[in-house]
Design goal:
By secondary structure, this protein is α+β, with helices and mostly antiparallel strands. The chain contains 17 helices and 18 strands. The chain folds into 2 domains: about 160 residues, D-Maltodextrin-Binding Protein, domain 2 (3-Layer(aba) Sandwich), CATH 3.40.190; about 240 residues, Periplasmic binding protein-like II (D-Maltodextrin-Binding Protein, domain 2). The chain has a 5-stranded mixed β-sheet with strand order 2-1-3-16-6. Helix 2 runs antiparallel to helix 14, helix 10 packs across helix 17 and helix 16 runs antiparallel to helix 17. The chain is globular.
Length: about 475
């Protein structure tokens, strides 16, 4: 009996220790000495970089000291996490004690991960959040099948980065009519011509690259869009919703959307054939070290460039399509980018792909784990997100600290956005930017199909038409499987 009593006492004490240490699944809340509930923010691995991490932590320290956050009774801490949303999926299976309370979420991943995220429509309605203040493209990227899964945080347009040191060096000896005008690079043709002028060769060996063609495959969506087209049918009333827009075989010649996809591939191929880039010049170091004249990057690219001596660069939107290859991939024709074609669509427009993050609240996969204590964390997390995005001064604090563009488009007249730099360069074009297609499977389609096939085109393994056909066939198969339509 004494042994049994001792065993029972040990079990009771062990449960007491677990409760005191706040480690059980049903009692996981932790508080600071001042009584504030500690909430955890997870952010993608991009936030693990030294400068980004320091900037975010600096903002968080300032946010934690605001009276507004103290009044909510919350203290925030953050961790960068690799392989989001996979790591979040594992945490949500385990339960609230393993989960973050708020996630800085790549909006792009929303359609394929709705089971992990809490719909916030009721919260938005209850607190009368004015969604019209948010940049619509970014806001809608967090909406799937009519449910809103978060509020958009930043607007992250991608564009062309021009090495102005190289441009100025070229212009210093060029004839007047041959100089590069960086304020007049709004078409495919003009960008191609500028890239050719900036390229230096020793025989067939490129010693200084004019434009980054090595990683152009990752920019394909933007070039299709600035051709006036799409990649995916996003019309939910269409019988081909969720498929690529690409007509079968030579049907692209009679289909406006398909033609723009084909033309984008043919333009890439023309750049490849011109030998404008050394394969070793596809990274940030080449641009920062004056070995690359034109590359691609987001509004955050200057954070990467801060480690290099190059400070003289400019950001431009992706150029408008002004070339078509309807007569063959080796027979380009220059067209008016602002004109309508015979199929009733405008030929081209400047702009590009919009990236960026949102603020979301994760939920346990098992509904039985959505306890009262978890709901308490949800309520506090929502108060934080609301304060972060709807309080003008708090919002300004975040975006000036992190040097980014808020999705609160009603705040774009803030003097911060008028300061010289890439934000001022690109802000006038922001409303021309478009989110990636919000359909399940698009992430995998872009990374595993589009990029792989374009790389094969660059290496000379496929013709333009073969690349088009492979993207269509493999893409439709992958997308239908991801959407449960296979």
């Amino acid at each position: 009996m004494k042994k049994l009593a001792s065993l029972i006492l040990m079990v009771v004490l062990s449960f007491s220790v677990v409760a005191c240490n706040n480690t059980s699944a049903n009692d996981y809340s932790k508080y600071r000495e001042d009584g504030r509930l500690i909430l955890t923010i997870w952010a993608p691995d991009q936030y693990a970089g030294k400068q980004v991490s320091q900037q975010f932590q600096s903002w968080l320290d300032a946010f934690n000291e605001t009276q507004e956050l103290k009044d909510i009774g919350v203290y925030l801490q953050f961790s960068p996490m690799t392989q989001l949303p996979t790591s979040l999926g594992t945490a949500c299976l385990s339960g609230p004690h393993k989960m973050p309370d708020i996630v800085v979420w790549d909006r792009f991943a929303t359609p394929s991960n709705t089971k992990l995220l809490l719909p916030i429509d009721d919260l938005i309605e209850k607190d009368n959040i004015d969604s019209s203040k948010f940049f619509a493209e970014a806001y809608n990227e967090l909406n799937v099948d009519g449910k809103q899964y978060g509020l958009p945080l930043d607007a992250d347009p991608w564009g062309l980065y021009i090495n102005m040191d190289m441009v100025e060096e070229y212009n210093s000896t060029a004839a007047v009519n041959d100089k590069i005008d960086v304020n007049d690079l709004g078409t495919w043709t003009k960008v191609m011509e500028a890239a050719d002028k900036l390229t230096l060769r020793d025989g067939n060996n490129v010693t200084r690259s004019g434009i980054n063609t090595t990683s152009a495959d990752g920019q394909f969506f933007s070039f299709v869009y600035t051709g006036g087209g799409e990649l995916i049918d996003t019309d939910k009333n269409s019988p081909t919703y969720g498929d690529t827009v690409m007509a079968e075989d030579v049907g692209f010649l009679q289909d406006a959307q398909s033609l723009r996809v084909y033309d984008s591939l043919a333009f890439f191929n023309e750049l490849y054939d011109m030998n404008l880039c050394n394969t070793g010049h596809g990274g940030t170091d080449a641009f920062g070290n004056n070995l690359l004249g034109i590359t691609y990057g987001s509004i955050y690219f200057p954070q990467e460039l801060s480690a290099y001596s190059l400070k003289n660069y400019k950001m431009l939107p992706y150029p408008a399509r002004d070339r078509t290859y309807v007569n063959g991939e080796d027979k380009p024709q220059v067209i008016d980018p602002s004109a309508e074609d015979s199929l009733g669509m405008v030929n081209g427009q400047v702009g590009g792909m919009l990236g960026g993050y949102g603020l979301v609240i994760p939920q346990p996969t098992n509904a039985a784990m959505r306890t009262k204590e978890w709901q308490k964390h949800v309520d506090k997390a929502w108060e934080v997100i609301k304060l972060w995005m709807t309080n003008d001064s708090i919002n300004e604090l975040y975006f000036t600290t992190n040097k980014a563009i808020t999705c609160r488009q009603d705040l774009w007249d803030n003097e911060f956005y008028q300061q010289d730099g890439v934000i001022k360069d690109i802000l006038p074009y922001l409303e021309n930017y478009k989110m990636r297609p919000s359909v399940a499977g698009y992430e995998m389609f872009e990374s595993s199909v589009v990029r792989t096939q374009i790389q094969a085109l660059r290496e000379g393994q496929l013709t333009v038409f073969e690349t088009y056909k492979a993207i269509r066939e493999q893409g439709n198969a992958l997308l239908r499987t991801a959407q449960g339509r296979a």
